[in-house]
Structure formats: structure tokens, C-alpha cells
């Protein structure tokens, strides 16, 4: 009788959709590894911001996952045409075609035009899952950019585009925590010269070893820098994964499993709907494809596609059969609790 009650409660469809999970978020960290400059890049729009005198209201950001070099453009619109044009002029024309370009599922990046441009240059477009922007490294750069812009503009918020070059120079010449080198050193094999450097440093012939020619010196220096950076990135990834996974739990779903998907409802006064009283989950949906350790493709029960979802947004949906099976795996500790309570009551007497 007790097991039947537990099975009924666990498989209740209403309870499963309205009750939030009390467990750690699902999904361990899966670092994205890059072994050379502009092998993996990310792109994202920031904005809208106050429109400037030049008509700019958005920032388009490209970031190299290996060197941490950034390309930042102040633009008027966040459209597919702008994204495709700036990708060609700021990334492809300067650094070549990245092997992978990571973006969110925003309309400009999902457009046929943008994907056609990537296909022409040979870059594979990879998309982050909805409500999980951590995959895209540009999210961290965006936060740094907004903080720096805030420090520059003061109360003149419509002048932010004037300071983009200075901010980019600062970020490109500052040593990055993950690699230990500045993006300029990683990309060019040397630090970018500043006016102070030109005044304080004496002129040299460009090499410390007279037996080596400048091209050999540069190649050797860049090779050593990249080797050190790869080791530093691996150490950084391990450290971040360790601390990230402390607050996460591993979860795996099999093909055909039923799941419920976390919703993100919004209040609607016209329809008399409030997000506080809306269902926490929707479903059930069926897992039809496992794309990685943390990404799954879902479909409705009738087979229509739902899309790719990160495991952090998923919870198992229990039927009577699966709930009964789970109860069999869980030891029933209730008799032990009753015995403990009985002993405590006897001791109190």
C-alpha cells in the first residue's frame, strides 16, 4: 500500500508540472577546447543601447576562444545583414575563417543569409541552447565591455561608441587570466607598443640572439607562447570545471525517455495571467536524439520537433511504470524511522 501511494504521487502529472525541483541543477561543465588562434570563435550582439550621434545603438562582438582577441563593432541595427557583413570584414578578412563559430539562437544568427555566408567561407555554425548562454564566451566579454563603457561615459550615455577603440586596446593588451598572456602576444607574438613604450624603450634590431634571424625568433617565440597558453588553458578548464561541478549533478537521459521542460512564463495582465501561478514545467516530451553529454533534442508525443535543450532545463517525467521502477530501486526507510521514533518516545518516558 505504501509503495502504491508513493508511486501514485511520483507519477502525478499535475504535481510534476507545478512543483519546482529541489535538487542541484543538472549538467556538468563541458569545456570548449581551442588549440590555435581563431579555430573557435563566438559572436553576439549587445544592446539596444542609447542611440549615439552616429546612429549606433548596438555592439557586435567577436571573440577568439584561444587567444581571447576581440573584434568589436558599433552598429546601427542588429540584423543578419550587419552580422554577415561585419563577419566578413572584421573576422574573415583579418584572421581567416574560423573552424567553428558559436552564437545564440537570435534572429540575425538564425537567418539564411548569415548561415549562407558561413557556409561559403567554410565555417561550421554552432548554436547555444535556449536559456543557457554560458556556452558562448562572448557573454563574459559583453559584461566586461558594458562595465568599461560605464566607466568611460559617465552621465553622457549617448557617447559610448567613441570609447570602443580605447576599450578594445585595453582588453587586447591586458594579460588574460586563462592563458597568462595578452591577446596581442598570443596573436602577433609581441605586445602592442604604446606611446610610453616608444619613449622609454631603446630601439633594438628585433632579436636577442644574433645567431637567429628575426623570422626564426618570432616563430620560436609564438610557438613557445602557444604551447604555454595551451597548458594554461587546460589548467584553467580543469579548475573551472572542478568548482562548477561542485554545484551540479550528472544527469543522463536515454532515447525514448519522457521528460518535462522548464518553462519561463511571463505575466500578462490582459490575459489575467501571472508568472507566479504558472506551471514550472511543460510536457511530457520525448528524447529523440542525444547531441552531447548535456544537449538533447526533444519531440512532442505526436513526433513534432521541439528543438535542442540543455539538460539543466530537463527533469524526468514519470509514468506509473517508471515511478514504480524507481521506487523499487529506492530503499524504503520509513520503518526505520518509525523504530527510531518509538525508541525516542520510550526514552522520554
UniProtKB/TrEMBL annotation:
Gene Ontology MF, one: nucleic acid binding
GO BP annotations listed: DNA integration
Organism superkingdom: Eukaryota
InterPro entries named in the record: Integrase_cat-core, Integrase_p58-like_C, Retrovirus_Pol_polyprotein, RNaseH-like_sf, RNaseH_sf
SUPFAM superfamilies, A to Z: Ribonuclease H-like
Matching Pfam families: Integrase_p58_C, rve
Domain Integrase catalytic: 33-191
Record-given protein name: Integrase catalytic domain-containing protein
Species of origin: Astyanax mexicanus (Blind cave fish)
Amino acid at each position: 500500500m505504501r509503495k502504491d501511494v508513493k508511486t501514485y504521487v511520483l507519477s502525478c502529472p499535475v504535481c510534476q508540472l507545478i512543483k519546482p525541483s529541489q535538487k542541484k541543477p543538472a549538467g556538468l561543465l563541458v569545456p570548449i577546447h581551442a588549440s590555435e588562434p581563431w579555430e573557435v570563435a563566438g559572436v553576439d550582439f549587445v544592446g539596444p543601447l542609447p542611440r549615439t550621434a552616429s546612429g549606433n545603438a548596438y555592439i557586435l562582438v567577436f571573440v577568439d576562444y584561444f587567444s581571447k582577441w576581440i573584434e568589436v563593432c558599433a552598429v546601427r541595427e542588429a540584423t543578419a545583414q550587419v552580422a554577415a557583413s561585419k563577419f566578413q570584414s572584421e573576422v574573415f578578412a583579418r584572421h581567416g575563417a574560423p573552424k567553428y563559430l558559436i552564437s545564440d539562437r537570435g534572429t540575425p544568427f538564425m537567418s539564411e543569409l548569415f548561415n549562407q555566408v558561413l557556409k561559403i567561407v567554410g565555417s561550421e555554425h554552432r548554436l547555444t541552447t535556449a536559456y543557457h548562454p554560458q556556452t558562448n564566451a562572448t557573454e563574459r566579454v559583453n559584461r566586461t565591455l558594458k562595465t568599461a563603457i560605464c566607466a568611460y561615459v559617465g552621465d553622457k550615455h549617448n557617447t559610448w561608441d567613441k570609447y570602443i577603440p580605447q576599450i578594445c586596446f585595453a582588453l587586447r593588451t591586458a594579460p588574460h587570466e586563462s592563458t597568462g598572456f595578452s591577446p596581442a602576444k598570443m596573436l602577433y607574438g609581441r605586445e602592442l607598443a604604446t606611446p610610453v613604450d616608444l619613449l622609454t624603450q631603446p630601439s633594438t634590431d628585433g632579436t636577442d640572439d644574433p645567431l637567429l634571424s628575426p623570422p626564426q625568433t618570432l616563430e620560436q617565440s609564438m610557438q613557445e607562447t602557444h604551447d604555454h597558453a595551451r597548458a594554461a588553458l587546460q589548467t584553467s578548464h580543469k579548475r573551472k570545471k572542478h568548482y562548477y561541478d561542485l554545484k551540479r549533478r550528472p544527469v543522463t537521459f536515454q532515447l525514448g525517455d519522457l521528460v518535462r521542460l522548464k518553462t519561463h512564463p511571463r505575466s500578462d495582465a490582459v490575459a489575467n495571467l501571472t508568472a507566479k501561478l504558472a506551471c514550472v514545467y511543460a510536457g511530457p516530451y520525448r528524447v529523440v536524439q542525444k547531441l552531447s553529454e548535456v544537449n538533447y533534442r526533444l519531440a512532442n508525443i505526436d513526433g513534432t520537433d521541439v528543438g535542442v535543450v540543455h539538460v539543466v532545463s530537463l527533469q524526468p517525467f514519470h509514468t506509473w511504470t517508471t515511478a514504480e521502477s524507481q521506487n523499487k530501486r529506492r530503499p524504503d526507510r520509513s520503518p526505520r524511522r518509525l523504530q527510531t521514533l518509538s525508541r525516542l518516545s520510550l526514552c522520554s518516558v
